[in-house]
Amino acid sequence: MEFPSVLTVVTTELLIAGGRWLIGATMAALRAEVKGVC
């Protein structure tokens, strides 16, 4: 049965994509704050 491994891969990919999105949003917010301060 390949389903468990497929689900694991899909879940991992989603977590990685979510993590990248969160990092990108955080960096954008920090840059906006830096620009506002400077």
Automatic annotation (TrEMBL):
This is Uncharacterized protein. It comes from Amphimedon queenslandica (Sponge).
